[in-house]
Fold this protein.
Amino acid sequence: MTKLDIDPPGSTLDGIDVVSCRHGGVEEVFATVVPRGDDPLGALCPKVREMLQNLSAQILDLRVFGSLSDYPKCKATLREHFPDVDWPMVYIDGEGCMGGTVAGVQLHAVSGSPVETIRLDGRPVGRVFETDKARFLILGDLQSHDPSSPRTSQAGHSIGRMEAALHEARMDLTHVVRTWFYVTDILDWYGDFNAVRTDIFTERGLFGKYVPASTGIGGRNPWGLAVVGSALAVQPKGTGVRIREISSPLQCPAGNYGSSFSRAAEVSAPDHRSVLVSGTASIDGDGKTVHLGDVTAQVSHTFEVVGAILESRGLNFTDVTRANAYFKDPEDAAVLAPFLRKHGLAEARVVVSHHDICRDDLLFEMEVDAVGAGT
């Protein structure tokens, strides 16, 4: 194993949790902002901007989880402090479970590489950067054109926009490592959404090769759309980078019960490994929900499953760079803190927000990204 040049467990700078990772001639920066108490987003934006300037880093994408009523104010604040927005921003309805209308902001940035912006219809939907081993494309805010069209059509349009952006970056769907789909009224039509995704993945020949890791979570958006998508794509320059599916030691493949995603993905290079764990909930090895009605037990089971995936790759929760915790009932979020302390996951690194999960009997879902040394 080679030593990874990284700064875990990260540092907290005036309310901003920052993890930086140097590999392949670049420095990636993962920043999480969780406004608390009287520390509004407007007070944090100048600190974020100063941090990026000090690191000579460019923003790749930005995600905000907050109430829809706060969207105009949040957008105006971001535009005030970042007037030259040239990167995708995703805003999803997910009020904070710990108080406040904004649950958190997640920012991904890079220094040491030129950054190319991918636009569709004049809107920035992606950013490309390069290491010495691969090209990376971060996609976000992938929307259907018509919010009045059937939901299944909008799902297809969102993936179609993903493909169009990939084409602009000289990539295709086979380069996609991970996706996120924020689905309005997910409990009403998650099966139909999965059917659309499965049909497209089948047509593109992904099955039998590699199916992306993914999160599909309930969440409205300011535009009244049925679904908004994001994605990470990686295009190796040679043989130095390997992309592969990581199975879960404690859960069956999601495809066993009709969901077309991998439990986790790993992108590995000689000096760096990134493990991307899909949205994970209290589901057993047979694909059934366990610990019905007991949120504490569901959180415990989820941590066990995610921890087993990380451990299978020689990592643990202290290696996490970004995390989301989704609660069906915001009042349940108080059970989370003891598990974060037990597993060494920094509380400031986790955005905790209110969402429907893909099954009505699931009370909690979590996703994490983690990094480790290369091989």
